[in-house]
Each structure stands twice: as C-alpha cells, then as structure tokens.
Amino acid sequence: MILDVTSPQNALVKLAKSLDRKKARTETGLFLAEGARHVGEGLALGWHLDALLFSAAAETRPAVQALANQALSIGARVARVSDRVLEAVAKRDNAQSVIGLFRQRLTNLEDLAQASLIIALERIRDPGNLGTILRTLDSVGGGGVVLLEESCDPFSVEAVRASMGSIFSAPVAKAGFDAFDAWRKAHGFTMAGTSLKGSTRHTDTDFGARTVLLMGNEQSGIPDNWAEACDVLVRLPMAGRADSLNLAIATAVTTYEIWRQKGFKGARD
C-alpha cells in the first residue's frame, strides 16, 4: 500500500530526515540515495531498500511508477509525498523526485582478494572526496576501496551524492593499516603510494599486475611509517606554484595511469 504523506512530522519522514546525521545512520544502519536512476541502480544490484519516498508531482513518470511498484513488491515502505517534504528530507530546494532509504553494506577484505586494483585511503576526512574516489574506482572497473583507520562515512549524504550512484557498485571495506598491509602482501599485491618524496613519476612506474594504490589524507599525506611499507612511492609532476593536487583529483590521475598500464581492461568501446 502506498501511503500519502504531506507532513514533515510523519514518522517515516522524520526517519529519512535524521539520516543526514552519522548517529542516526549508525543506529538504524540506513542511508539515503537520491534520484530515480540511483535508486534503480541500488535495487538492480541487490541492495536492500527499506523505504521509498516519491513526489506526487512525478507519479505519472513511468520510471517513478516502476520504482514504486518494485518497492512494494519487495515489501519496502512506499510513500507519496509533497515536494515540501522531499525538500525537508534532502535539506535543499529542488530536491530529487525520488529518495530511497537503503540498508548499509560493507564488504570484507577477502571479497577483494581477486581484484587487480584496490584504492586504500588513509584517514580520509572529506566525504565529497570519498564519493568522487568511489566514482573513479567504478569508472575503471576497480575491485574496491579500503578505508584505513578512522575515516569519514561512505554512507553520508555528501559521499553518496558525490559518488553519483557508484556507492552501489564500488565495494567498500574498512581495516586497520597493519592488518591490511599483511593481507595485501599475503595476496600478492604491489602497494604504491603517492608522495612528494616519491622517486619516480606515476607514468614511469611499473605498478604491477595487482595493485594497491595508497593515498594519504587531505592534510598530511601518507605517514612516514606507512610510506616505508610501500613497494614504491610515486610523485605527480607539477609545473606551477601549487605543490599538490586535491586528493580526489590526484587519485583519479594515478588510477587512470594504472588502468592504462593494464591496457584499459574492460573499457567500453
């Protein structure tokens, strides 16, 4: 049954609104995905949809009708809401016409054992950077992103938005550095870190057949003891006054070079 909701004080709406806070996401195990296309991707990839909110004004769109019917068929709660309610949930004007409440899902390191490329992030702080990196990994067909030590939440609204749907197709794992380093060695991964102390340019580096790209956080880069654990340290050439790139951009530049060396395997022609 589809519920008709017009009040921001409705219990389901209040739940959806609360998911911009990490405490609520942790307690409920849920997160928000905005937009019919992204909600559809989550469903297509088997993520558990807990609830669906859609705009009454968009109900005549075939894609929205299909999502509502699919959500009902799997037992999710479905609510037809006003634009005012959607804007209250999204906390911005001109909100997407569909918002899904999905169950969070992390992967285990062992699920990444056969990957040819893993991006490992050291205490990343900016959810926008994290979401963009998830999108980059997805773009090159990488195996997964590993968040090392305490990092920002991949299921925050900002990270999910920046991922542009890749939160559903780019596996995310969490680990401590020592355990991860031992795991990647046991599985034959070469670990390359980017650093101002790097001895070779990224384009002159052999990243190996199976690669972990280790990226330091936005403030201080890779710690010295982590850099020592890398098989190779690489640097990105710079010409202007800037001495570094934004974390997400530096990750993308290096990731695409690694993919180039792998022959752009899996690229759509």
Automatic annotation (TrEMBL):
<dbReference type="InterPro" id="IPR029028">
    <property type="entry name" value="Alpha/beta_knot_MTases"/>
</dbReference>
<dbReference type="Pfam" id="PF22435">
    <property type="entry name" value="MRM3-like_sub_bind"/>
</dbReference>
<dbReference type="GO" id="GO:0008173">
    <property type="term" value="F:RNA methyltransferase activity"/>
</dbReference>
<dbReference type="GO" id="GO:0003723">
    <property type="term" value="F:RNA binding"/>
</dbReference>
<comment type="similarity">
    <text>Belongs to the class IV-like SAM-binding methyltransferase superfamily. RNA methyltransferase TrmH family.</text>
</comment>
<protein>
    <submittedName>
        <fullName>23S rRNA (Uridine(2479)-2'-O)-methyltransferase</fullName>
        <ecNumber>2.1.1.208</ecNumber>
    </submittedName>
</protein>
<dbReference type="InterPro" id="IPR051259">
    <property type="entry name" value="rRNA_Methyltransferase"/>
</dbReference>
<dbReference type="InterPro" id="IPR029064">
    <property type="entry name" value="Ribosomal_eL30-like_sf"/>
</dbReference>
<dbReference type="Pfam" id="PF00588">
    <property type="entry name" value="SpoU_methylase"/>
</dbReference>
<dbReference type="InterPro" id="IPR001537">
    <property type="entry name" value="SpoU_MeTrfase"/>
</dbReference>
<keyword id="KW-0808">Transferase</keyword>
<feature type="domain" description="MRM3-like substrate binding">
    <location>
        <begin position="10"/>
        <end position="100"/>
    </location>
</feature>
<feature type="domain" description="tRNA/rRNA methyltransferase SpoU type">
    <location>
        <begin position="117"/>
        <end position="256"/>
    </location>
</feature>
<dbReference type="InterPro" id="IPR029026">
    <property type="entry name" value="tRNA_m1G_MTases_N"/>
</dbReference>
<keyword id="KW-0489">Methyltransferase</keyword>
<dbReference type="InterPro" id="IPR053888">
    <property type="entry name" value="MRM3-like_sub_bind"/>
</dbReference>
<dbReference type="GO" id="GO:0006396">
    <property type="term" value="P:RNA processing"/>
</dbReference>
<dbReference type="GO" id="GO:0032259">
    <property type="term" value="P:methylation"/>
</dbReference>
